[in-house]
Amino acid sequence: MRAALLFGAGDVRVENIPDPTLQRPTDAIVRVVLSCICGSDLHDYRGLPAQQQGLQMGHEMLGLVEETGSAVTGLKRGDLVVASWTAQDNTCEFCRAGNQVNCVHGEMLSAAQAELVRIPQASGTLRPLPVTSEAEAPLLRSLLTLADVYGTGHHAAKRAGVGAGDTVTVIGDGAVGLLAVLAARRLGAEQIVLMGRHRARTDLGREFGATDVVAERGEEGVAAVRDLTAGGSAKVIEAVGHRPAYDQAVGVVRPGGVISRVGVPQYEEAPIGVSSLFFRGITLTGGPAPVRSYMDELLPGILDGTVNPGRVFDSSIGLTDVPKGYAAMDARESLKVLVEL
Ligand SMILES: [Zn+2]
To answer: How far, in Å, from the CA of 90 to the mean position of ligand 1?
Structure first.
């Protein structure tokens, strides 16, 4: 089969490699219909040291079940499924508590930019979809976002405790930030301030429900948000992962408020002391999204067209062009690249 492999920073190649095979009775093999490139893939794309053996890439995938191991239940050949970006049994104590990312049998998918992919813990990782692969393209794209970005945006809003009438500030106009806007709107937020400076992206953010856009950063950006929100936002979602975004979150949050981080932190040290969080009674929460636990809740709105999270895909390529897709996302020429097989 053909698969995208990363050989080092900036060096993605599409090569022929052996087809994946069932390794455990709980595995399934899925033929990929749609995959995509994630903002978090760019961390490796920018920083991986050169290597002889390429690493398979990709953790977002929608496809057709090809083969199931003897212990797999609830799935059969030909089912259209979406995978969550983490594999999990969906039955252990952590999974039952809605923390599938920390499943005792968990692992991260990292081979979804390929024609075929082996899915561990298939019964808990794959969710069958009530449509066929012949469904309309926009619907399939939106269903693919359940694998990560829509679920992650929703997780950010849930962890922030977003509810009816709330004021929410979302930091970051990447796909997750924009879908956090959509999720916050869906959960009833009334005022949603989106911090981002890429016009095409913030325009989509407005369509998803942002009521205000702040393009400024740093102290200027903080002042603008505090102005718009009468002194600060009770709910703040940080969807970037870099330290300046954390500092902005601390700057715009209202006393007693919540900062919910879903951008993968690229820093270990940041202020959490008396003046930054403690005295103002700020809650710091977030973390990686257990997207499997949100699929049942988010699916109906996609199926009935209430929401169209797949609009975050602003370009579409075939597997052969995956190297170009990485380059386009790295250069911020593309918001999120869809890979159609
Ligand atoms: Zn589990």
So the answer is: 5
